[in-house]
Structures are given as structure tokens and as C-alpha cells.
What we know:
The structure is a single chain. This protein is mainly alpha-helical. The chain has helices spanning about 10-20, 35-45, 50-65, 75-90, 95-110, 120-125, 135-150; strands at about 1-5, 5. It has seven helices and two strands; from the N terminus they run ββααααααα. The longest helix has 19 residues, at about 135-150. The radius of gyration is 18 Å and the shape is elongated.
Amino acid sequence: MQYKDLEIQSRKDFASQESKRGVWKRCTFEADPALWHTLQDEAREAGCSVSELIRAIVSKWCCKASDTPTCLMDENTYETELARAAYFMRCDTERAPFWGGYHKGLHRAHDGDSFCDEKAHEAILALSDYDDPDSRMRGDGYRAGLDAVRTGMPWNDEK
């Protein structure tokens, strides 16, 4: 769900993602009553819970700090996905270009401009429009890597 430039996941969606990784954790804090009322009003307007709104705000704030549009993938999953992409680049010769692009996309979404500049980023994105199947696979893999980090959900064939 979108609300004021925030992607808000339902508690059910978030819980199902976290339970797949076995990392469901709760935290509590003492909030300023005025801030709490503002959050409640905003959550009501957005049609979500306060915790869903807070999670979306924190995610957006963390991503701005790391110069990526959104980055919900935790560090452990990111490292696992890099290793998975490297493995399949070697073993899945038919789809090696896809896995190479996926690997680059993971890096770009995680590290931003420090991984590759905007010109290189645009060039890799454009590969999806090429007629050459290997180039198209590389571009599609790159986009899948970007999406994986930004959504927190690793790529799979079933999507």
C-alpha cells in the first residue's frame, strides 16, 4: 500500500516474510504522547496500523541515509543472495547472464553510487530492451537484484 511516498506492508505480509527467515522480533519504546497521537492519526488516514506506518517510515529513513530508494533486505539475506548469485553464475550456464545481472543489481541497490555511477546503472537497465538474449537476461537479472534488495524479498522463479 502506498501512502505519502511510503510503501506500507501489512502486518500479515511482514510477519510472513520474517517468519520465513525466523527473525520475528518485537521492540517497544516510550513515545511522546503528541507524537503518538500524530502517528495514530496518520495510520488511520493511511488505513494501516501504527506499527506498519513506523516500519515504513524507518525503512524509508534508512534507505535515504544509505542513498538507495528503498532497502528492506537485511544484511544476512543480502550476503546469502550474493553467494547464491555467484554459485548460479558458475553452475547454471544457460542463465549465467541473468545471475551476473542479479549479482550486480544486488550490489547497486545495496551500495548505491559507490558501486557504479548513474551512467553505468542506466546502461545496465537498458540491456533489458536489447534483442540479444544474453543482454536481455543480464538486464532482467539486474532489475531483479535491484527489486530484491528494495523489497526485502529474494528473487525466485515463481514470481
